[in-house]
Amino acid sequence: MTQQSPHDELIIFEDDHHDETPDNDAQPWKMLVVDDEQQMHKATSFALQGFTFEDKPLDIISAFSGAEAREILSKDNDIACILLDVVMETENAGLDLVGYIRDELQNNSVRIILRTGQPGYAPELEVISKYDINDYKAKSELTRTKLITALTSALRSYEQIKAMEAGQAGLEYIVTSSRELFQERSIEKLAKDIIQPFSRLAHVAPEDVLVCGAHKSSKTGQAVVLASGENIAAGKDTLLDDLDTKYQEVITEALTNKQSNFDGSALCLYADTPSGHKLAIASTTQVPLNFVSKKLLAVYGVQIAASLENTYLFEHINDIAYQDNLTSLKNRNGFLETVQNMLDSSNEKHILLLIDVDNFQAVNDGLGHDIGNEVLKKVAQTLQSNFSQCLIGRASGDTFCVYLPADSIEEQEAAIEKLYQGFANTINIGDNELPISVSVGVASTEECENNSNNLFKNAGIALKYAKSNTKGKHQFFDSAMDEQLKLRLNVIKELKGAIENDEMVLFYQPQFCLKTNQYIGVEALIRWFKPDGTIISPMDFIPAAEDSGQIVHIGEWVLRTACAQQVAWIKQGLPPLRMAVNISMRQFKDPNFIDYVYETVKSTGIDPKHLELEVTESMVSEDAMVFIDQLSMLRMDGITVAIDDFGTGYSSLSYLQRLPVDRVKIDRSFIRRVESNAGDKTIVSLIVKMGHELNLQVIAEGVEDQEQTEVLLELGCDEVQGFYYAKPMHPDDVKSLLLSKS
């Protein structure tokens, strides 16, 4: 028999005792004693009187059978330890209870100490291991010291298991909460979503939580309220310094020191991002946080920081997507989205003004992009000043939009007049005094089918009409404009297959020399014959081809076909004719244009001196230096150049002498009344004289009668082209005409 120390005495069974459990406000440890012997309950209570673990007392609950214990355990899951008799109403009642606890209740945290009074009875080691039993003692050897030692070990194990369970549950909760945080797209919503998880992890009421944020790029640099619980009187965006609250000190300290504070009566979780965003979440607490709670809050802070960076990134992307960086107005996307929201929420009649700054490209090119940007800012400021209560946006480079209520035509006209008045004075930028005029397209919500994109499209169509007529004017949208646009779009769609399906045909209009009385050239003119017999006018499909870019492909076909036809006529015995081919602006700007001309000359075998390229006066005026360089390259190889529609523009007169051209074509508008209108006759006379002074040939187009011819002969015009001499003809008819004159 082992000798026992004086302090290791056996448990003494007494009927009564009068010692009280220590007075302690901490929640006690719950221990369930399960034994069918009344004396064992009394002895256990006596032995553990005054017992504490980590400053928390012990609350002993008694059960006198396995069935009674089951009832207690099914209702109370906070029991930390069970002192369990193995043999009670049955010899396996204790072990059956263990199976119930572990298997049915799935309670793996409660610690179990088995004890038995049956000599030589002991559960198998396999059972002890399977059911996670902490200890096994015979009642005869369970002294007070050994009981306290076993209980202390069990409670410590229970505390660690609960801490791990709390940590695992907390981490799972953080992961779940973080998924929601990462989905937020605004800081305001993110701040609100933070409150509930923080209150749970910090064991505080959500009504007492305050969320503040600060960023280095903010206007004041101070922290502001982002969200708060119901018990805190703090509105959104309230400055932290203006708060009369107990949280002010702990939040200021956290933001200054860039660290959390989980000690004391006021808690504060701090989070920041690499971009300089800061967040502080604070509350008050009555119970100090344990180790696990502090660690979980620290982990949650990391998740908040990642979500914060993500949300600010989305807000920045949203600013880029919906706000114009230069003027701080809404961009087209933001403007249309806001208009759509207004359309969905109100039936009030509005109009959209689509405003284009006239000649803005000239400002950009002449004074530089910095001045151009300042002009755009001034335009934005003028619109904001004149339409302060209206929605304003910047749709594109120099195009702005204003959405405003207007019930009547009078109100619409008044709004437009107000717009023009806003730009009545010049804009001063540095040493530059710039006059600003605008063209305006106007569309009403009555014709947009409650769709902001349709409204914007209608205003765009109206603006195009306004600019095509004359600058500095406005145009109201009309449904007929939309029909015309649809027709043009249909033409564009059908154009794609027109050449491949041999629907395009070249006709040729002869040109006549007044001095030799001979046909000396032809102009290639394209015609479109659809399979159903419909003839599409070049006036309809050429602008459509220009708009869609298909003019480049069509122009290449025209050049190749015309050159091949000129060579074919020579092989058929006709005298060499000058082949004039019109070149569009889109063709000329194509980077492959010059190479294609050279390749076409080579592949068709045409003599370069028999090829003439016609460019319009307006084309030359637009970018004279580029034309001079490229036309000079073509003329070096013998190709001649003519300026078509001469006299309809103004700018080319000053630099005509520098242009590498061979021929000037007087526009038909001056020939129509040359025999009866003194003004037209004077203009034609001046063009002829100027051309001859510059050693240029002059050809008049649109000649329709003998009287016009006689005036042109009198004025010294070199060549003529028009119905009086020949209409545009099929190649075979040209051949017949020339052979009949030979």
Structural descriptors:
single chain, 27 strands, 4 domains, 24 helices, alpha/beta, disordered N terminus, eight-stranded mixed beta barrel, elongated, 742 residues, six-stranded mixed beta sheet, Rossmann fold, Beta-Lactamase, Alpha-Beta Plaits
Overview in brief:
Residues 30-154 form the Response regulatory domain. The protein has 742 residues and is α/β, with parallel strands linked by helices.
Word description of this protein:
45% of the residues lie in helices and 20% in strands. The chain is an alpha/beta fold. The chain folds into four domains: 136 residues, Response regulator (Rossmann fold), CATH 3.40.50.2300; 140 residues, GAF domain (Beta-Lactamase); 148 residues, Alpha-Beta Plaits (2-Layer Sandwich); 253 residues, EAL domain (TIM Barrel), CATH 3.20.20. The strands form five sheets. An eight-stranded mixed barrel has the order 19-20-22-23-24-25-26-27, surrounded by four helices. A six-stranded mixed beta sheet has the order 2-3-1-4-5-6, with helices on both faces. Strands 11-13-14-12-17-18 form a six-stranded mixed beta sheet, with helices on both faces. α2 runs parallel beside α3, α6 runs antiparallel to α8 and α10 packs across α11. It starts with 28 loop residues before the first strand and ends with a helix.
